[in-house]
Amino acid sequence: MIRAALAGLLIAAGAARDAASFDIRYGTKGLPVSHGNPYMANGSPSMFTWMAMFDGLTQLDVEGRLSPALALSWDVVSPTRWRFKLRPGVVFSNGEPFTADAVVATIAWLKTPEGSRTVIGGEIRAVASATREDDLTVLIDTDRPDAILPRRLSAVSIVAPKAWAELGPDAFARNPATTGSFMINDWSGNVGRLTLKAFAKSWRPPKAERLIVVNMPDNPARVQALLSGQIDIAGNVGVDDIDMIETAGGAVTITPSWSVQSLAFRLEPGRKTPLADVRVRRALNLAVDKDAIVNGLFRGQMRAAGQPAAVGTTGHDPTVTPYPFDAVKAKELLAEAGYPNGFPLTLEVMVDRTPGDAAVFQTVADQLGAIGVKVTLRQITFATWYSRYLSGEWGPETDGFVLGWNAAPYNDVQRPMEVYSCLKPNPFYCNRDITDLLVAAGEEMNLETRETMLRELAGAYRDDAPAIFLTETFDLFGVSRRVQGLAIRNRVPVYEAITIK
User: Which residues pair with 137 in a beta bridge?
Assistant: First the structure.
């Protein structure tokens, strides 16, 4: 009680500011490793900084629907050509005008050998080229029909072409020229803290004077910083933090992350592992009590999952149910596969990436242990995980790793399905039959037919079990009582709409 009362006083105190000029202080679990080069990652934690600075041609709104950004409209010219009409009057933070030339230059660089090796270059592998029709019109051609190209382009940040060409990726990353609500002139600020200032000429000008992104990898540190008034918004808080924050007068905003938490199996061709037998993979899914995780660790705030798409994501099939908890059946399947006494299993995980993840992984290890599978959880950093994910060079003893079926930033299941397929560079799982169906779905321009195909794939992935499906995930943001106008768009606060009392 004393702690809650003190926390309330601290949040209320929170350093009063000039009403006409205020900062937004956001506590995040990490800053972008590649600084202001927006092509080297796609997702957390980089997105919490980059989405304040950069824009794509399209974006997803707060409901997860595709909406205009730097492009106002788009239409299909042919199955392999799209026309995008651009927003007039947009300028970059260095004064360059935004025109079709910026889009053409961005796509051209991403198609170079260097650009194609980046995460975002991989996201648009099917794009062949972009050409200028006029100042505010771009034609984008693809190697094959791509029904979700406008969604894919939400992940492609458009950079100032002259600055990018003159500086090169590394120097640009230190001094990026952007169209978003906030800009930065120098990335070499105080360690662990990044200050962005308002870009008043942005097409989405902010209400705040500055956005201060504070690196706080440890969740308890973020929560305590919120309670003490050091930050205004704490990203990625845990379910167990809700009561403390609300008692202190703050709030917790819970929004879908369009992702399914899972532990992926390494199934490279020729790799000798018990996991090569689908009966083993199904047994591991049956051995995990997902309802116990949802109710015990998440107070019913999450949902058990058994397919690649979360509810509300394009491609989710409501008839595909999670694997039931059945330890007896799991042991029977292991025995049929030749492992009546189980086997050792090494999983590489990151913690404090999603709410309660450390407890989830330990629970999974304990439950697999009950059927004889001796799990070793090896904790690694995001940088290590990211390098291994891109290269496919996991240690020989690594049997699996944490990898969500993350539909953001498209909110379309084709994105995570492509990661779990032969289409991924250096794939860890390659089922040719599933990949062929996935390619066909991606080329189907009739959206209703495509939806049916994706739902069929949901069942195919469940049956082949390339991962342990765990739960759908949600993002939890701790919010000071002084924050007004908070909305979450594509898993990130809409910074430009926020005001501070």
Answer: 85, 134
Q: Collapse the DSSP code of 242 into the 3-class scheme (helix H, G, I; strand E, B; otherwise coil) and give the result.
A: helix
Let me know whether 212 and 136 are in one domain: no
User: At what angle are helices 161-174 and 100-110 packed, to 10 degrees?
Assistant: 60
pLDDT reported for residue 409: 84
Strands 23-28 and 210-215 come out as parallel
Asked whether residue 325 is domain-assigned, the answer is yes
Tell me the three state secondary structure of residue 477: strand
HEC secondary structure over 32-98: CCCCCCCCCCCCCCCHHHHHHHCCCCEEECCCCCEEECCEEEEEEEECCEEEEEECCCCECCCCCEC
Residue type, 13: A
One domain, residues 72 and 131: yes
Q: 205: which 2 tokens?
A: 């000008």
Environment class of 439 (CB within 10 Å of its CB; exposed 0-12, middle 13-18, buried 19+): middle
Residue 122 has a CB neighbour count (10 Å cut-off) of 19
User: How high is the pLDDT of residue 189?
Assistant: 57
Position 50 in a domain: no
CB neighbour burial string for 48-83, b if at least 16 within 10 angstroms, e if fewer: bbbbbbbbbbbbbeeebebebbbbeebeeeeebbbb
Compute the 3-state secondary structure of the chain and give helix, strand, coil in percent, each to the nearest 5: 35, 25, 45
**Residue type at position 355:** P
Identify the pLDDT of residue 470: 97
Q: What is the CATH number of the domain that holds 188?
A: 3.40.190.10
Domain contains 424 = yes
Which residue type occupies 191? V
**Cβ(353)–Cβ(290) below 8 Å:** no
Number of domains into which the chain is organized: 3
Q: How do strand 23-28 and strand 233-234 relate by DSSP bridges?
A: parallel
Q: What sign has the CA pseudo-torsion 125, 127, 132, 136?
A: negative
Q: With CA atoms as reference, report the closest residue to 480 among 253, 255, 256, 254.
A: 253
Within 8 A by CB and 6+ apart from 412, the residues are 148, 151, 313, 314, 315
In terms of residue numbers, what domain contains 123?
58-164
Is residue 468 a part of any domain in this protein? Answer: yes
445, 314: one domain = yes
* Closest by Cα among 456, 457, 452, 451 to 435: 457
Strand partners, 142: 127
Domain shared by 455 and 316, yes or no: yes
Q: Report yes or no on whether pTM surpasses 0.85.
A: no
**What CATH number did the domain enclosing 66 receive?**
3.90.76.10
Residue ranges of the chain with pLDDT lower than 50? 1-19
> To which H or E segment does residue 343 belong?
none
What phi, psi does 442 have (nearest 5°)?
A: -65, -25
Q: Are 233 and 495 in contact (CB under 8 A)?
A: no
